[in-house]
Each structure stands twice: as structure tokens, then as C-alpha cells.
Batch of 2 targets.
Target 1
Amino acid sequence: MRFRVRRANIKQTLREQFEMFGEQVIAVALGVGSDGMVSTAAQKLVRDNPVDAILWLREQRDYADRHATRVELLGWAILVLLAVEVAFDVGKVFSRI
């Protein structure tokens, strides 16, 4: 469960370039590298800024984790409210008997 996002302290231009390519492309470019291959723009960007790419990917993962945590908490809240409603309805039924 993550509530706080560890913001990457990177330049805005790098952030925009990373966001333009997206998480999957940056992660693949970081993992594959460019040894003996024709480098794409994403691979060149990651090769020149590997630490910034890792920090940005961590930030994106934190955002996804925070979203999943909020969705899970919302689901639990709905379940608790539903259980309380059912308990009240059962109480009403038994109070009439």
C-alpha cells in the first residue's frame, strides 16, 4: 500500500520526453540497451539519462500503486457500508416479529 509518491527530481524537458514515450517503452529501452543495435530515440534518451529514467519509472510505479490502494480502500468501504445496511435490515425484520 502506497499513499505517498516519490517524485523524481528531474528536468521538465526530460519528464515530458519520458511521458511522450511512455512507461513500457522507457522500461524496455532501459532493459535492452543498445549494444550492437541501431538505437531508437528512446534508447538514446535512456542511454544518456539512465538514472533519471529509473527515477521516473519509480515515480510512475508509485502513482499506479497509489491508485490501486485507493481503489482497494474504496472497495472495502463499500463492503463495510453494505454489511452495516444488511445488519440494520436484519434488525428491522427481527424487531417486527
Target 2
Amino acid sequence: MFEIALQYARLQARVFVRCRAREAELEKQFQSDLACTEADYLRKTQDMLSEFNRAQQLLKDKITKQQNMYVSQSYKAAVFKLLNISLCW
């Protein structure tokens, strides 16, 4: 009877050690996966921010171009108006 109890205790100790080893292995894998996920998230966030900044700069450039064209057209219209007025005199 004592021998069976001793074998059971040894078996229980081995199972406990194996369970703890597996738990540590899974925890390590989880931490590794979590780090990869965080890195991927940061990379994607940086990519989106970079894309947004490029689009924003493109729109700013287009607005500047449109403003320059407007000023140029306004200047030409003013000059033409002055020329018409002076031609009428």
C-alpha cells in the first residue's frame, strides 16, 4: 500500500513539473506573439501616418497651385480691365 502511495506521489510530482514546464513554454510563446502583434500594429500605424502626411502634402501643394492660378488670373483680369478702360478713352 505504501509503495502505491509513493508511486502515486512521484507520478503526481512529474505531472506537476511537466505542467509547469508547459505553462512556462506557453507563456513564452504568448509573450513572443504579443510582441510581434505590437510591432505589427506600430508598423501599420506608422505606415498610415506616413500615407496621411503624403496625402496632406499633396493637397497643400494643389491648394497652393490653385491659389497661384487664381492670383495670376485675377492679375490678368485686372490688367485687361485697365487696358480696356484706357483703350476706351
